[in-house]
Structure to design on (90 residues):
């Protein structure tokens, strides 16, 4: 084997080492991606109940607005200062 053959083998070995390193980096990134996806799933589990509660509060507020409109037609109007209902006379 001549000098050219040795250089070719060294080049092939270097390329093989780079390929192995690339696979290792890919595996590391894949593992980190798995951890990230697990954390996102946990965040969803923690954040979902308050978001659902907020939606329920918004719905109650909307329904309360409709009730206020009906109460206004009956002579009961909201008090602007205290957030309570007052009876409108006259």
């Amino acid at each position: 084997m001549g000098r050219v053959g040795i250089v070719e083998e060294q080049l092939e070995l270097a390329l093989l080492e780079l390929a192995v390193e690339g696979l290792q980096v890919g595996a590391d990134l894949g593992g980190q991606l798995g951890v990230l996806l697990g954390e996102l799933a946990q965040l969803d589990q923690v954040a979902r109940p308050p978001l659902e509660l907020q939606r329920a509060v918004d719905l109650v507020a909307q329904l309360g607005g409709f009730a206020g409109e009906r109460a206004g037609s009956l002579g009961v109007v909201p008090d602007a200062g205290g957030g309570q209902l007052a009876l409108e006379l006259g």
Q: What stands out?
A: The beta strands are 76-78, 85-87.
